[in-house]
Amino acid sequence: MRKREYLDSVGDIDFKFYQTQDDFIVDEIPSIEFKGKGNSLVVHVKKTEMTTWDMIAAFSEYLAIPAQKIGYAGLKDKHATTTQYISVDVSYEKMIKQFYHKQIEVLDITRHSTGIRMGDLAGNRFSINLFEVDNIDAGRIEKCARKISKNGLPNYFGFQRFGRDSDSFKQARDMLSGEIFVEDAKIKNFLISIYQSEFFNQWLRERVEISQNENNGKFKLLEGDVYVDVKGKLSTPKIIPIKEFEAKKLTPTGLLCGRDVFRARDEALEIEAKYDDEFLQEKGYRREALIYPKDIECKYVKKQTMLNISFTLPKGSYATVFLESIADKNYSAKDVKKK
């Protein structure tokens, strides 16, 4: 797996951060406004040191209903304190009010006309403690974070996407070529997502390198790029839309290979084709090449040589990628595990 390259960084600060319940906080931001009435019960929950699947399993067992009957918008980190929303039928309201679990807290309940579906998510708010930071470096980190917020962050898939096994991309490729057979549907889908994600990351790395070498470190647009607007509509403008891009009205996208997907043209296609698999039968997608971290707040605690950085990212993007960009370093699960 090749190194993820970035456009902006401090570069010479070796700060530490850890994915623990005290040092890595994630709050889900829903994309819908709950009406306060309806046949679905929306439950705002806080969980610590457990996966979303484990949390749903706990509710499933307690309510004696299949896990598929519990709605959720997205998956959250295990090694963290996270808040998110789930939904169940309103008939379970009394039971939810009496629910107890040592790793799960019910923060609030309300009602809505429909259950929560995957993707009903605007983004996530992160609060992360960075350690071994002096006051000068704290200022440099904040300055770099705000520059990334303005110029854009390459929207790589983070190390979490690829599982614990660094050889998972090879397994995915062997599965798709027929060299190995995978019966379990969940594992098969997981490997396919790794296959698509690794190709996207490789494509984005090349585009970042081009930007570094040919555009003074700012993301370089190419003829034939596919853009997405603020409403999610894809297009390939005849003229490179520099003004719309700078105004953040259009964002270039990269390919998650598969069928029935809008592909690049002209100069952009020459690069994209290197990281495509037109024979992949699963559905393809486009993913934003850049995202823009918002609402950055920094608080330095001198006695602990610790900087708390808070920021908001759109759904599907990774806080660890933002921190990688600042540090100009690629992290792994081992790096963020507290010894």
UniProtKB/TrEMBL annotation:
GO terms for molecular function: RNA binding; tRNA pseudouridine(13) synthase activity. One of its GO terms (cellular component) is cytosol. Gene3D superfamilies: TruD, catalytic domain, TruD, insertion domain. Coiled coil: none annotated. InterPro entries: PsdUridine_synth_cat_dom_sf, PsdUridine_synth_TruD, PsdUridine_synth_TruD_CS, PsdUridine_synth_TruD_insert, TruD_catalytic, TruD_insert_sf, TruD_pseudoU_synthase. Belongs to the pseudouridine synthase TruD family. It holds the Pfam family TruD. Responsible for synthesis of pseudouridine from uracil-13 in transfer RNAs. GO terms for biological process: tRNA pseudouridine synthesis. Its EC number is 5.4.99.27. The keyword tRNA processing applies. Keywords: Isomerase, tRNA processing. It comes from Sulfurimonas lithotrophica. The keyword Ligase does not apply. PROSITE patterns: TRUD (PS50984), UPF0024 (PS01268). It catalyses: uridine(13) in tRNA = pseudouridine(13) in tRNA. The active site is at 77 (nucleophile). Residues 152-309 form the TRUD domain. This is tRNA pseudouridine synthase D.
